[in-house]
Amino acid sequence: MEQDGSTLKPSGIRGKDAEGAERIPGLLRLFAPGKAMAVALRLPGGELELGRGAPALGEAQDPRMSRRHARIHFDGRRFWVTDLGSQNGTFVDGEPVPAETPREVQRVIRMGDSLFVPCADVGPLEQQGVVTRDGFVRGPAVQGLLDEVSRAARLGFPLHIHGESGTGKEGVARAFHQHGPRSTGPFVAVNCAAIPQTIAERLLFGARKGAYSGAEADAQGYLQAADGGTLFLDEVVELDLAVQAKLLRALETKEVLSLGAAKPKLVDILICSASNKDLRGLVAAGKLREDLYFRIGRPEVALPPLRQRPEELALLIQREVQQVAPALGLHLSLVEACLLRPWPGNIRELLVETRSAIQAALMQGAQRVEARHLSPSAGTAFGSGSTPPPPSLESREPPNKEAPSRARPLESEERTRIEEALRQNGGNVAATARALGMHRTQLRRLLERHAIAVSDGNEPD
């Protein structure tokens, strides 16, 4: 489970972050009976025992938890879970754990109808919580980033946003506009990757009547449309080098020369750009002009991917359910399944797949959205090196009984991918799981259910 990008020191329970502040290891409680949340639980002395009536759970008690359900321990580097003989069992990363047997947790813990995620530092969540503003769910990491964005906007600086596809870069750009000196002006968002190179210059800078065949009237460009406001150039690196040169001149002179025009027009705009690629690497590769990089590439903020913001996930899913189908309930199995997946498409993918799960629940006449309504491929990596995760977890496993297998036979090509990945990684299950974009417990389950052999000496670790 990726947390805040830092590594805790193995010599002690607490460490220091990059700024020297003390880190507080603990748990994030993301789901209580029927309700998404984001609550920080500290591990006093590196250990915490949870169960029905535990003071740490506050008012959101869980009747399906035993009084002494499980113990969570942090050894300075890893989190361990020990079931204390609970009636309904404890599940670590989607797998039941035997009583009194410590099990390392990577992603999520299920006890009763509650979900917990291990966290290297719960301090930021304690201090800032998770808020919903302007239609966006924002955890501590994004709140801190938006503070930087606001400062850059107030000072009139340009801003570059780096982040994976679907992380919410346009939302950050809109916040940049709202906190800047031109907030009352227009906000013009341009997806540069979607502009055909043959008409990029015309769309960005405009054209006068008669400038080319078919130009029967003056056409305003994006830069003129953003006059007095903010121009957001998403994936600006996709522009042709010649267009980059003209863009640079316009930004430096604050003058835009339309196609066919004799004189430039003054514009007053604030620039915000974004990309999921490394700008310096593109400069080195000759795909981005160095002078344009220095004009738009600083200051830069990095928007973390959804997998590093687990405190937002359950609340995002709950909000989507409430907006699309308020009568439906949200079951913890859906949230747990989503926490176990990497979501390469980030928030955009999560919301699309959640809507699809809601539609499946409605079509089946279900009372709540569960993991079984989620597509097996949702939230997993694309490409030949990926395979859908195993079937959804049972909504509720009966105590001391193994849930019946719901696996479907693997298609031959999927089986071939797994076997090929095993060969490429020397039969090492953990390395193979990483290559396939899944957790090793999920791969173990596939290996066992479908009798895929692992060579001697390379059994699942």
- Assign the CATH architecture of the largest domain: 3-Layer(aba) Sandwich
Biggest sheet, strands in spatial order?
2-1-10-9-6-7
Characterize the biggest β-sheet.
Answer: 6 strands, antiparallel
Q: What shape does the CA trace take? A: elongated
How would you sum up this structure, described in words?
- By secondary structure, this protein is α/β, with parallel strands linked by helices.
- It has three domains: 26-122, Tumour Suppressor Smad4 (Sandwich), CATH 2.60.200; 140-303, 3-Layer(aba) Sandwich (Rossmann fold), CATH 3.40.50; 309-449, no CATH class.
- 30% of the residues lie in helices and 18% in strands.
- The chain has helices at residues 123-128, 140-154, 169-178, 200-205, 222-225, 241-253, 279-284, 290-296, 310-324, 332-339, 346-363, 412-424, 429-436, 440-449, and strands at residues 26-32, 35-42, 47-50, 70-74, 79-83, 90-92, 95-96, 103-105, 109-111, 114-119, 131-133, 136-138, 159-163, 187-191, 230-234, 255-256, 265-266, 270-275, 300-303, 329-330, 368-369.
- The strands form six sheets. The protein has a six-stranded antiparallel beta sheet with strand order 2-1-10-9-6-7.
- It is elongated and about 80 Å long.
Helices, strands, pairings?
Layout lengths: L25 E7 L2 E8 L4 E4 L19 E5 L4 E5 L6 E3 L2 E2 L6 E3 L3 E3 L2 E6 L3 H6 L2 E3 L2 E3 L1 H15 L4 E5 L5 H10 L8 E5 L8 H6 L16 H4 L4 E5 L6 H13 L1 E2 L8 E2 L3 E6 L3 H6 L5 H7 L3 E4 L6 H15 L4 E2 L1 H8 L6 H18 L4 E2 L42 H13 L4 H8 L3 H10 L12
Parallel strand pairs: 13-18, 13-19, 14-15, 15-18, 20-21
Antiparallel strand pairs: 1-2, 1-10, 3-4, 4-5, 5-8, 6-7, 6-9, 9-10, 11-12, 16-17
Helix pairs in contact: 2-3, 9-11, 12-13, 13-14
